[in-house]
Amino acid sequence: MELSGGQILVQCLKDEGVEFVFGYPGGSVLHIYDAIFHQDDVKHILVRHEQGATHSADAYARATGKPGVVLVTSGPGATNAVTGIATAYMDSIPMVIISGQVPSPVIGSDAFQEVDTVGITRPCVKHNFLVKDVNQLAETIKKAFYVATTGRPGPVLVDVPKDITDPNIKIPYKYPKKVSMRSYNPVVTGHKGQIKRAVEMLLCAQRPMIYSGGGVILGEAHEELTELTRMLGYPITNTLMGLGGYPATDKQFVGMLGMHGTYEANMGMHEADVILAVGARFDDRVTGKLAEFCPYAKIVHIDVDPASISKTVKVDVPIVGEVKPVLQQMIELIKDSKTKPSKAALESWWQLIQSWRDVNCLEYDRESRIIKPQYVVEQLYEVTNGNAFVTSDVGQHQMYAAQYYKFDKPRRWINSGGLGTMGFGLPAAIGVKLAFPEADVACITGEASIQMCIQELSTALQYNTPVKIVNLNNRYMGMVRQWQEFSYQSRYSHSYMDTIPDFVKLAEAYGHVGIRVEKPEEVRDALKQAFEMKDRTVFLDFITDRTENVYPMIEAGKAHHDMKLRVAPGTPVERELS
Amino acid sequence: MRHIISILIENESGALSRVAGLFSARGYNIESLTVAPTEDPSLSRMTLVTSGSDEIIEQITKQLNKLIDVVKLIDLAESAHIERELMLVKIKTTHETREEVKRMVDIFRGKIIDVTPNSYVVEMTGQSNKLDAFIHGFEEGSIIEVARSGPTGISRGEKGLHL
Ligand SMILES: Cc1cc2nc3c(=O)[nH]c(=O)nc-3n(C[C@H](O)[C@H](O)[C@H](O)COP(=O)(O)OP(=O)(O)OC[C@H]3O[C@@H](n4cnc5c(N)ncnc54)[C@H](O)[C@@H]3O)c2cc1C
Ligand SMILES: Cc1ncc(C[n+]2csc(CCOP(=O)(O)OP(=O)(O)O)c2C)c(N)n1
Ligand SMILES: [Mg+2]
Questions:
Q1: Which of the listed residues A42, A132, A504, A513 has the most CB atoms within 10 Å of its CB?
Q2: Do A192-357 and A373-543 have matching folds?
Q3: Ligand at shortest distance from the CA of A321
Q4: CB distance from B21 to chain A under 8 Å?
Q5: Is 90 exceeded by the pLDDT of residue A576?
């Protein structure tokens, strides 16, 4: 089969099993777009801004586990994609970005719409390639998918000069079944001796805690994690990225940890004597003050990326490997082991945890006559039976979503954790809805975030992706306002906008349904109504309490046991440490 | 502590900037960097001198290993090794000082490889501190220019850094 570079590119995507390409055309990719025109196996989703393309593709990957694919033109197309590429990079999301480039002979001459895309994206991709010869195109695309999806996943960019896709130059095409790279050999199984040491340490623990993160979701290891945790009977906490890796409604789950984690999760970490960290990277939002992080604990850390291990927190038993096989091995060893977890120790540990739980750190004013954002999330949970895919933007609403929507399954909670990219939520919801047209998809957002990619409402209409936008409209950049309240004596410098659009009219202008909700008693019905409109995108504008804050909170530079709570716990918790 | 990290890296156009970018992005200290193709033209060998605490050096080697273009690396400081740097130095000479300069070059086992009535070019290899000592042996103003390669190194014994 003889094909041009443009045709090869599209054929590669087809052979790779790509369902959707999220993109936006321009001069340097016109040959590719012409090849797309002649087929319909790979569906192209025309976004309204390249940032939207990257977030939609990224969320598609988060929801399905398959790599997301993006196609953008050179220059501004590529620079517009950078925010989304960095977002995927920080959360280790597999993605392949194809960017057009000016023709090879003029590279470096400041040609029209030329930027050094490989240079600009280098620090925020797992790897990138510049294709220099059409004969290497197919292999490069294969390598891009291989690198993006193996080891610690991440975005890979392929920069394709226009002459490479010239329709007049045809060459024989064959998509390689496999590629190998001598410089890239990710580790899969963990070191047996280390795994044994880890199991021994775990079984002898008096106050154990399992701390799992995004690696469990990325590595499809939720079943193994659940089995191990239940077998041991130990408490488990998840990072923001790890939510859904263990069922949130299970009694062993103590909630999210970190800056806005629960009292019980953070106190549990602080008092623990053995911590099993699974696919989590000890982010500063999780650890708080490093010098006082988990002062009594020995730490086991499973991670596929050696560079994640002992990066910020020195660990005692490092295990480099994929979570799934490592957890399987651990489960086998625990089954065979004569040592069993100490019942007595575990019982008093759970008692202590119960006393922290009794603080009820997520309680809020349920009698309020103004809509509380927490209430909206709780109602969303009920109306969707806990089964929705929930995307979010960045801010207070993101934290309410994480705290009050109980995710029992992986890949249902889709948010930008590492980069914290406002504008992520709406295009993300579209990407998820395309992957799962029958599922309920909600985007929890704020009036500031939603405006960063609002133009994607138009994409939602074109491709009929009926998502439900849950706007927690507090007329503030709430998260910024909260920090200003706590740390800047309430000097609210530029954390609100004097003009906020009428979101109902805005939704209607884009061809969707808009509903404004101002009273707590209307919340549930409005949500129900929205989800009953199966084939319409609905923008729910909830006018929420402007003054509400996210609690608990570990302020910057503070340690886990030093949490700001909504209500100071009545009697201080008795600490019984052996 | 000072570390010499030797890296085998794909001989690709972007490879050098990936390494340099890593150091600037993560704020690692970089004292010198040399790079040239090996006997296998598809591979380059890079020698990088850096310093930092054990934790930082551990992160540096992990992050370097993580670069897709990096095939292999070793930290030479971890075992017995040989370290050399090449220096070319142009020295002002006068009729009176020529003999003295030549004597210095001999003591340091250098070679005079270019001569004009008013200058010598000296070639010298050795450990970096030897080259420093040579330069410090001259009066201010007598050195016209110095071109140094930065150290490169190799481990002692039969084991080596290869594919
Ligand atoms: C406003 C805001 C507030 C936040 N507050 C909090 C908070 O209170 N609590 C909180 O937890 N986070 C919070 N975050 C998120 C935080 O910034 C980090 O994104 C998050 O904590 C990182 O999660 P993680 O440790 O699970 O790592 P991830 O970023 O999910 O990284 C996954 C880790 O797993 C490894 N891995 C990947 N695949 C595998 C595999 N197959 N096998 C083994 N290992 C694998 C990777 O190498 C990596 O080390 C907040 C973010 C924002 C924007
Ligand atoms: C692109 C981008 N710019 C700035 C920020 C900093 N930031 C974090 S939260 C936030 C406010 C978000 O406001 P809103 O969307 O209304 O959410 P709320 O906190 O009110 O729920 C800002 C500005 C960011 N995370 N992303
Ligand atoms: Mg807001």
A1: A42
A2: yes
A3: 1
A4: yes
A5: no
